Protein: Aspartate aminotransferase family protein
Organism: Ideonella aquatica
Amino acid sequence: ARPDTGVDPAQVHALLQRERQRYEDTHPHSRALAGRAAEHLMFGVPLHWMNDWGTPFPLQVAHAQGAQLTDVDGHTLVDFCLGDTGAMFGHSPAPVAAALQHQAAAGLTTMLANEDGAVVARLLAERLGLPQWQFAMTATDANRFVLRWLRAATGRPVLLVFNGCYHGTVDDVFVDLIAGQPVQRPSLLGQVHDLLPTTRVVEFNDLTALEAALAPGDVACVLAEPVMTNIGMVLPQPGFWEAAQAIIRRHGTLLVMDETHTLSSGPGGYARAHGIAADAVVVGKALGGGMPCAAYGFTADLAARAQAAKRAAPPGHSGIGTTLTANLLAMAAMRATLEQLLRPEVFAPMHARAAALADGLRALFQRHGLPWCVTQVGARTEFQFCAQPPHNGTAAGAAMDAELEHALHLYLLNRGVLITPFHNMMLVCPDTTDADLTRLLQAMDGALQELRR
Ligand code: PMP
């Protein structure tokens, strides 16, 4: 069922058709390149869900710099997607580009430690507030490895997640609450394991359900974003995390904060800024300024338990780590990001512009009489097709409308503005200008005028 978005679905459909045609007319080089690519690229793209942007054929990038990217037809787009946070500090940020250039001639990968490792871990400890660190290539892997460590350290098998979460392609988290019942996500390909015995799921902001789910005493950890950011945005209600932490501790369960997206709240992430004391924190995506890398930190107590679990295990494969993890290039990228970008003075203008964008969107939706809400957390701003910010994953999911989303995103793209696909997120980077915000707001105004005709 489509939500009541305040706009006529027939108008949405008509706008989408017009914008699809406009895209086809104005992107001949993308079309030609996509055609050639399809000869040997399965699905015509390097990663199958690159097709899910909603464009008639995949947009082909020529280059990207700062807050802008240019496609092969010569269109320059203001980028508010920023690789869904991988490029949160802008495309090819200068300090990272310089560090990569230097390291590129001094060894790329060795499977050995170097000085950068110690420096990066110290900076992570300073910023995120946890003393012990390990690395991974992606936030997905970091989450996967954390789950292993925590199940091993606690001897407990069960993971608890919040309904509608996303933590990368970590199989364990893909259990949904459908009409109050846990259901393994049917879209998962090739999943032969029954996830239900070892994954428990409750709604975000539901303390009663959390208490009940932890009561059996078999839950190793709660894996959560401090703010849900992948099903639209869902904010914690006042007091939620304070009470949730007390419940989690009382049941001997560990708390893992996945700050992959909420790192946009500042150099220490959202949890630290809001007094959430996690046992483990995961960071990825922007941590290497766009280079693939991720990290996870443990408290001293958890680190001791994890190390004891490793010592107690027979020698052999731990199931943790990949060959290129913590390679020299990745370490150089993280060091440059931490030293020069993950700093309060870099975030301050990002946050100010994100707030201005959120205000501008609210004013626009009000002027058009649309019952859409706007939520801003750090440098991220999200709009959702419901009047009140949703309080859990079910409500957030119910406010989604794929056709309206595609029509709006394509209208914006055709006018030089890129926002994040699959929901309505706009990220501000250090290079985003006031003129970029104006461009987005004016394009959005144009789309809404057409929809309200
Ligand atoms: N955690 C969160 C909260 C995410 O949003 C994502 C990706 N969107 C990931 C982990 C996984 O990141 P990656 O795809 O880089 O592994």
Observations:
- Residues 9-79+345-451 form a domain with the Aspartate Aminotransferase, domain 1 fold (CATH 3.90.1150.10).
- The two ends are 24 Å apart (CA to CA).
- The chain has two domains: 9-79+345-451, 94-340.
